[in-house]
Design goal:
Elements: E1 4-8, H1 14-22, H2 32-38, E2 44-52, E3 55-66, E4 72-77, E5 81-82, H3 87-103, E6 106-112, H4 118-126, E7 130-131, E8 140-145, H5 150-155, H6 159-170, E9 174-177, H7 183-197, H8 204-214, E10 221-227, E11 230-240, E12 243-251, H9 260-274, E13 279-281, H10 287-296, H11 307-312, E14 317-320, E15 325-328, H12 331-344, H13 348-358
Parallel strand pairs: 4-6, 12-13
Antiparallel strand pairs: 1-2, 2-3, 3-4, 3-5, 6-15, 7-15, 8-13, 8-14, 9-10, 10-11, 11-12
């Protein structure tokens, strides 16, 4: 086969974004829109696109950032993506990524394959990659199949979740779709959640830029739950391909007895179903909890009353996602990683590197 491998640093690439939206496994974090959002945090983009003639067959978007004192690093989230199973093309794309890593003098780069793509899970170790201790995305999630009727979706939930939804509706919790005028409200609710849970949210400008880029093509929606006209909870969701993803959420911490969060999630599920989406992805649960559920069928006590247990209340399928793989351009570091990391992975320096990968 005669394939053409193109490397592009174009900020905007509508053709690539359209390929992702139309291809199973395509994800918004591979779009050029996402690259533009991440540029606010210092990431720059380099994109590999494989073609046959004028047709895109696959590729990958690599995000790169200086990370003093370690040099530059990069990652590919939910990629590479191919239109069909093709070992030759997969090897060509991975080889081009490795060449780019050398050209950009990356110390390392991480690849987390698309959901359910077992092919790359097999390819990457053969091409010099090792399993990574740094995640660039969830490795387990809950997906709800929206093809069922509304009553069946309710029946598939835990009894307490159904009870809370019905109570919230009786208590007068209402949900409306938000606009750009609600971005400040969303950020205030997100900030309240961040304060309670002990994390630092992205700056408000980050969300403003994401809305500006993602909302016009329909890849960003905002839903607001209100009690007596007061906004108390919000969901930022990303509809992409056949899936609606719960991306960000916030709650003021008020009116908990009215169950605004459960009503909000239920209305988002109904919106996704009525708008033709096949799946609703709750965007990540704890991997350890997922493993326990698969092995023992019971959620450990330590995960009760957590975001993971809350998401499990809505039913759906607990799904393992491909784990990340890492490639080192320096052969000495590569050898050190293979031989020494099992002993040093708990050192504080390693934990700091992991933390910097995961946070803005």
């Amino acid at each position: 086969m005669n394939y053409q491998i193109q490397v592009s640093q174009e900020t905007e690439d509508k053709e690539w974004d359209a390929f992702l939206a139309q291809t199973p496994g395509g994800h918004h974090v591979q779009t050029s829109l996402w690259a533009q959002v991440k540029a606010m945090l210092g990431w720059r983009v380099s994109r590999v696109i494989a073609r046959q003639g004028s047709q895109i067959l696959g590729g990958a978007q690599l995000l790169i950032r200086p990370m003093a004192p370690f040099g530059a690093v990069g990652y590919v989230a939910k990629g590479p993506l191919l239109a069909s199973h093709n070992p030759v093309l997969a090897a060509l794309v991975i080889d081009q990524l490795r060449q780019m890593a050398k050209e950009y003098k990356l110390q390392c780069f991480i690849v987390q394959p698309p959901d359910h793509d077992e092919a790359f899970v097999h390819y990457l170790p053969r091409l010099g990659f090792h399993q990574s201790v740094v995640n660039v995305g969830p490795t387990a999630t809950v997906k709800i199949d929206l093809s069922a009727e509304a009553d069946a979706l309710l029946a598939g939930m835990k009894k307490a979740t159904r009870k809370h939804i019905r109570r919230g509706l009786r208590e007068g919790v209402t949900v409306r779709e938000g606009t750009d005028q609600d971005l400040d409200t969303f950020y205030q609710l997100l900030g309240a959640t961040a304060q309670r849970q002990g994390f630092v949210p992205y700056p408000s400008d980050y969300f403003g830029e994401m809305w500006r880029l993602f909302h016009p093509p329909g890849y960003a929606r905002l839903f607001i739950a209100e009690v007596g006209g007061e906004a108390v909870a919000a969901h930022w969701v990303v509809p992409f391909g056949d899936t609606l993803i719960s991306k960000y959420g916030g709650w003021s911490g008020q009116y908990g007895q009215h169950r605004p969060n459960e009503v909000l999630d239920w209305e988002v599920i109904m919106w996704a179903k009525s708008n033709g989406y096949r799946y609703h992805d709750l965007e990540g649960i704890d991997e350890e909890a997922a493993q326990a559920l698969f092995q023992e069928g019971i959620l450990p006590e330590s995960f009760q009353q957590t975001p993971t247990s809350y998401k499990l209340g809505f039913g759906g399928q607990v799904t393992h996602l491909p784990k990340p793989y890492i490639c080192f351009c320096n052969p000495v570091i590569d050898l050190t990683y293979k031989t020494a990391l099992p002993q040093i992975r708990n050192f504080s320096a390693i934990q700091k590197v992991i933390h910097r990968w995961r946070t803005p």
